[in-house]
Amino acid sequence: GKDEILYYCQDRALDQMLAAVAEARLATPKAADRLTRVLTAHLRILLDEVEGATAHLQVDALSPVLRARIVKKRDRYELAVRRLVTEGMATGEFVKTHAAVVARGMLGALNWIALPFVAVGIVRGQFSSSNGGRNFCQVVLAIAVIRLSSAAVTMLPSGSSSHPSPLIGRS
Q: 13, 45 in Cβ contact below 8 A?
């Protein structure tokens, strides 16, 4: 069913993202170069290589069992990216700050880049000659609106003061 298709897309995308981390670790000793390779691969996988990879933004649409599997794998990927950031901080390539916040910020920004492409696909699908195509696009649109509205609420300032800190530091 739909759950299995959504799971397959997410699982396949995460497999390729984890493979990109492993390949980057073998390719270069510099953390900045490894991180660049991983983030470039992340974006390429989302927008180009894995059909339906943008579906990984829809984790909440999965059944609890499949969601738990994807979240576990997604957490492994996020931890791998965080380690690259931490390694760069340790070598002086990056400014020392909160590696988890930096990693989540970068991954979140890359994930949000995919949304305009999803929106274009939804609009195009509305003109489908198939009822199934139109209905699918309407479901995706409804999920996107719900996700965007809940994300906007969680991004509101909490009253705590924060200041931006650049990631890239000394070379």
A: yes
